[in-house]
Amino acid sequence: MYECLVDGEISGRISTADRGLQYGDGLFETIMVTGGQPRFWQSHMDRLAAGCERLGIAAVPQPILLRELKTVSAGQSRCIVKIIITRGSSERDYSPSGLTQSNRVVSSHPWPEAERDPGVFGIRARVCELRLGIQPALAGIRHLNRLEQVMARAEWDDPLVHEGILLDREDHVICGVSSNIFLVYAGRLLTPRLDRCGIRGVMRAAILGAFRERCEQRRLLLDMLPEAEEVFVCSSENGILPVIRIDHWEYEIGPVTREVRQWLEEQ
Amino acid sequence: MYECLVDGEISGRISTADRGLQYGDGLFETIMVTGGQPRFWQSHMDRLAAGCERLGIAAVPQPILLRELKTVSAGQSRCIVKIIITRGSSERDYSPSGLTQSNRVVSSHPWPEAERDPGVFGIRARVCELRLGIQPALAGIRHLNRLEQVMARAEWDDPLVHEGILLDREDHVICGVSSNIFLVYAGRLLTPRLDRCGIRGVMRAAILGAFRERCEQRRLLLDMLPEAEEVFVCSSENGILPVIRIDHWEYEIGPVTREVRQWLEEQ
User: Fold this and answer.
1) Mean pLDDT for chain B?
2) Domain containing residue B164: CATH number
3) Contacting residues of B for A5, CB less than 8 Å apart
4) ipTM of the modeled complex
């Protein structure tokens, strides 16, 4: 961690009574920052606001978050800034009643350096054994209850496998452990609906916006994976990564993936 | 909070990089302490050990936890001690690989004072709208991902309603927001199986042990609730609370509930 602000003060520590620790009662965003400018800022803020509204957590004014992002990223040509908003501190009680003061942690982190550009060469993935629970009340938003992702990521330690594909209990493809997923089918871009589990990624939203006429959000079953013409995963952190293998299924890096990657480079 | 130790040091703050905050990647126990003696200590430790094993988190030796419990509860005739174990701190990465040093927070809290003894007069409950997601990988243990409980508890603010009953997505009765539930049916004690969601409470385990010949763990459907002869909820914190009303269904405080309460008083 390069630098960290807790409620605007330089600090690397937070109260043990914070409900983020106690219950995972909060939300987070990770934002790429280059030359002091956050990428997809408004999209991150929109998702954060949607999450605060869903959980009933007091929103933090955007200008405060932007100022703190600039503080922790100052002097760095590029870095990642993570913003955590929690419901604040309380005694031992699940009830959020009366908690009107959220807490926030804004920290900067090193830009990820890949030895070999996975965007160019493509990545390998695997289908995880863990199945995501179905929970519409928490689906889509980026909340702090992430044990499913931790458990799924713990399933493999082969450094050649870059991502795990997560299914729900009904064998629907949902997302990667740290990414969203798109399948190319007859030239169209299919991505899972995330109304029952998964996170609505900022990069996913940008792709859905830019290619809206060729995109479709729908239920995708596991047995559609081997039939896909192309597969890629995306995240605001890693951009768009072609998938060249999922377990024993192999894929080409095809024209649609290249087109989407080209679009992103032009942003 | 009366007193708090973080990794054995007096402190009310924890690193913002702690995975308990970042992902809810940890476990907790709340233990009643009277005269310096923890109630159901071994049962709490057994559940904590099972949780650490399930999540692959380094266990903390029991003597350390007991010593710290005694430190934070010293001089108090009775209090609650909460123990949190997290997977430790790491950079922004779900992977738990290589994390062998857990963090711990041991804090004391005031004993709950009820104005009117709910154990004697019984409590009112409601059926929550939120349905628990089904997630066998995390079921049973007391982990830090508790947004479902927060969301469920936020559904009501009527102070006369003491507990919310949680169902899963298939209309199985699972538990209370902060308790386990037992139904009395033909004199037998039925309690939900907790292999797909819910927490295996320490008080529930004690009752299952003490009344094993009359207990049954099974799937309980919502439509069995109005048919029950008696209903009670239990937790290590609140003991055994007769339920006299769930929404519009009413119950007597019956002989089985009284017997189980009597047993607990003799412990």
Assistant:
1) 95
2) 3.20.10.10
3) none
4) 0.94
Each residue's pLDDT tens digit, B187-224 = 999 999 999 999 999 999 999 999 999 999 999 999 99
Kindly report the nearest CA distance between residue A59 and chain B, in angstroms: 17
| A-B contacts (CB, under 8 Å) | 183
Q: Does B57 lie in the same domain as B39?
A: yes
The whole-number pLDDT of residue B119 equals 75
Pair (A256, A130) in one structural domain: yes
Range of the domain at A78: 3-110
Segment (H or E) for A46: helix A41-55
* Distance from C-alpha of B160 to C-alpha of B155, rounded to nearest angstrom: 14
Same domain, A126 and A169: yes
Nearest to A147 among B18, B24, B92 (CB): B24
CATH assignment of the domain containing A76: 3.30.470.10
Q: Are residues B146 and B172 in the same domain?
A: yes
Q: Which pairing describes strands B172-176 and B78-86: parallel, antiparallel, or unpaired?
A: unpaired
How far is the CA of B142 from the CAs of A204, A257, B87, B99, B194, in angstroms?
Answer: 33, 42, 14, 20, 12
Tokens at residue B81, please? 């001690």
Question: pLDDT tens across A113-156, in order?
Answer: 776 677 788 999 999 999 999 999 999 999 999 999 999 999 99
- Number of separate domains in chain B: 2
Residues B235 and B256 in one domain: yes
Give this prediction's pTM: 0.95
**The domain boundary residue, chosen from B75, B110, B145:** B110
Query: Domain end: A110, A141, A171, which one?
Result: A110
CB atoms within 10 A of CB B216: 14
Tokens (6 digits) for A88: 């604040």
85-104 in A: which are within 8 Å (CB) of B?
86-87, 91-97
Q: How confident is the model at residue B116 (pLDDT cuts 50, 70, 90)?
A: low
Of A91, A147, A197, the CB nearest to B145: A147
Q: Are residues A226 and A99 in the same domain?
A: no
